[in-house]
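User: Hi! I have a protein structure encoded as tokens and I'd like to know what sequence might fold into it. I'm fairly new to this, so please keep things simple.
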């Protein structure tokens, strides 16, 4: 197996190991492209490729044929450009005042989200953006707000925006689904209808609305390009249904100490775990400083997090602290200091850990810490 290792932290120095299967990321992208048919499958690699590492992920996807990427900030686009000099890169968070020169310097495309942003881009292009004999300006995208109420042009701004963009090189018009899943299909269809109405002035321009979940919605168009993120990294884009994507990561933590407690003894801060019988416990070298949610502690009404210990599921015991957590290994085979337990992998998915932590898999992924020994595999 070909492995690419992060050199700054060795496995012996770290309490946990994060293994990232780049070949699985590529297979997921190819699966999504096959589902999309004629629509181009781009890739959302913001937030350090959802915590898995922007550079290695982009390198793998570009090698597989991915040509269009979406990031949140200019600095992410700059990092991406250093890996792929030819890809199309859109910056989703818009044109922050004063950042226009960076788009020119690094061949990035702003997603213009408001009238002031369009006006600033117009002024910049008037000074620096002429790039060919036909008088074309630097490419940019438009974000239309179809109900999410975060970023984007409102319906009552479309006429003005249309006039302002007459001389601009608009290469993509996009929006974002508010809901996901088949249970919200009717709402998504209503949003698509609004999107089609709002983008009428740019009807010849490629469009995009589908994220990971949107790709699998029935009766909604994929337009010219889709923007998967979560699904690329193994998250389930079809909530309530079997996951069509392959798992990408494995998170393991080292056992630092094995203890025995008697009935009535408590574990962790605030004594939230109370042993009802003699228990065997393992302290492992990972905590909320590494992205494991404090809310993963179980209760009588909500199951908490679990780990795999030599094929046995073992529950979290007590609160997750910054650097450490405890798991109840009473039901596991003989386990010793130095052994590893698995928090995410084949048996426990990102989505399961998220559900047991009362959050979403996106948050689990993007909170993965920097203290792991990271191992990238390509085959």
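Assistant: Happy to help. Inverse folding works backwards from shape to sequence: for each of the 379 positions I chose a residue that suits the local structure. Here it is:
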């Amino acid at each position: 197996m070909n492995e690419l290792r992060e050199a700054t932290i060795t496995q012996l120095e770290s309490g946990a190991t994060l293994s990232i299967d780049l070949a699985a990321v590529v297979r997921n992208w190819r699966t999504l492209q096959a589902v999309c048919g004629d629509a181009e499958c781009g890739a959302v690699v913001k937030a350090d490729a959802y915590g898995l590492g922007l550079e290695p992920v982009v390198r793998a996807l570009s090698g597989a044929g991915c040509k269009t990427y979406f990031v949140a900030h200019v600095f992410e686009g700059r990092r991406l450009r250093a890996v792929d000099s030819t890809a199309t890169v859109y910056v989703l968070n818009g044109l922050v005042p004063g950042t226009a020169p960076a788009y020119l310097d690094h061949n990035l495309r702003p997603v213009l989200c408001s009238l002031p942003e369009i006006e600033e881009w117009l002024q910049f292009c008037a000074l620096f953006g002429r790039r060919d004999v036909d008088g074309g300006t630097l490419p940019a995208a438009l974000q239309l707000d179809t109900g999410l109420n975060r970023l984007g042009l409102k319906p009552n701004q479309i006429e003005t925006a249309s006039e302002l963009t007459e001389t601009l090189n608009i290469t993509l018009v996009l929006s974002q689904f508010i809901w996901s899943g088949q249970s919200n299909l009717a709402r998504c269809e209503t949003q698509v209808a609004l999107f089609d109405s709002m983008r009428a002035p740019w009807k010849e321009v490629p469009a995009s609305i589908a994220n990971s979940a949107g790709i699998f919605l029935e009766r909604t168009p994929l337009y010219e390009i889709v923007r998967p993120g979560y699904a690329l990294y193994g998250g389930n884009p079809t909530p309530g249904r079997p996951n069509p994507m392959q798992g990408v990561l494995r998170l393991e933590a080292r056992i630092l100490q094995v203890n025995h407690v008697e009935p009535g003894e408590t574990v962790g801060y605030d004594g939230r775990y109370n042993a009802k019988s003699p228990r065997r416990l393992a302290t492992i070298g990972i905590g909320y400083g590494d992205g494991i949610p404090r809310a993963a502690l179980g209760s009588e009404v909500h199951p908490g997090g679990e780990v795999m210990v030599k094929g046995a599921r073992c529950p979290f015991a007590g609160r997750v602290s910054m650097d450490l957590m405890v798991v109840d290994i009473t039901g596991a085979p003989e386990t010793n200091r130095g052994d590893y337990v698995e928090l995410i992998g084949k048996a426990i998915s990102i989505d399961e850990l998220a559900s047991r932590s009362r959050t979403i898999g996106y948050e689990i992924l993007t909170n993965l810490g920097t203290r792991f020994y990271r191992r990238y595999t390509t085959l």
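A useful reference point when you look it over: The chain has a mean pLDDT of 92. Feel free to ask if any position seems puzzling.
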